Amino acid sequence: MPIQLMRLLKYPLLMLFALQLSGCGYNTFQSSDEDVKAAWAEVLNQYQRRADLVPNLVNVVKGYAGHEKDVLTQVTEARSRVGSINATPELLNDEEAFKKFIAAQGQMTSALSRLMVVSENYPQLKADRLFSELQAELAGTENRITVARNRYIKTVKDYNVTVRSFPTNLTAMIFGYKTKPSFTVENEQAIAVPPKVDFGAPAPAQQSAPQPMTLPPPVIQPQPQAVPAQ
């Protein structure tokens, strides 16, 4: 075959190959994979935001409740376990590592919940300005974690459906795309409930003791006077 003819056929073949890749979902995989990475990065960002609050929160509580060593130690150790896991986008390709990371975050949530329950017993701590600011920031971070986690769940669901569906599953097998882990029912139960951090509600008013019933004074009827005899 002449060289010129081979060159002429080269570009149409490349275009045909590109069209086939597009038709079988290759471009969809590229886009979906980036969406999953972005959603996971936001989850990690919010978890890191929460971890950064822990040292200051522990120090403030320690100033008012230093003898609560067990609870303070649990929070510190939970943060250490979270920090020891290298949470990168590659973590999504290792289901066991993903489960360990989620379990560590669940332990962090539980430890913070216990810390907040203990803090409720210290009125001076609840009145501390720094503690109020930290608890508000923690509450906001927990809400952002929930939003980011839900977005990740939806994004991974769409990606995994593409991996399993025909004919895109053929493209997934050729290029090595596999399903990615998501939050399961078990670890959702462990981390879905944020710590109780609202200590700003006023204490319920104490009911006054019932007053004794006061009876009206008796009414004394005047006695009729005797009429003198004529």
Can you tell me about this structure?
The structure is a single chain. The protein has 230 residues and is mainly α. Helix content is 67%, strand content 0%. The protein has helices at 3-23, 26-64, 69-83, 95-119, 123-126, 129-164, 168-175, 185-191. Helix 2 (26-64) packs antiparallel against helix 3 (69-83) and helix 2 (26-64) packs antiparallel against helix 6.
Uncertain spans, ≥5 residues at pLDDT below 50?
8-22, 186-216
Could you tell me how far the N terminus lies from the C terminus, measured between alpha carbons in angstroms? 164 Å
The CATH architecture of the domain at 44-151 and 185-191 would be Up-down Bundle
Overall radius of gyration: 34 Å
Gross geometry: elongated
- Count the beta strands: 0
| Helix and strand element order | HHHHHHHH
Question: What is the top-level CATH class of the domain at 44-151 and 185-191?
Answer: Mainly Alpha
Strand coverage percent: under 5%
Sheet with the most strands, sense and barrel status? none
CATH topology heading of the domain at 44-151 and 185-191: de novo design (two linked rop proteins)
Structural class per helix/strand content? mainly alpha
Total number of helices: 8
Helix content: 55-70%
The CATH superfamily name of the domain at 44-151 and 185-191 is LemA-like domain
What is the topology?
Layout: H1 3-23, H2 26-64, H3 69-83, H4 95-119, H5 123-126, H6 129-164, H7 168-175, H8 185-191
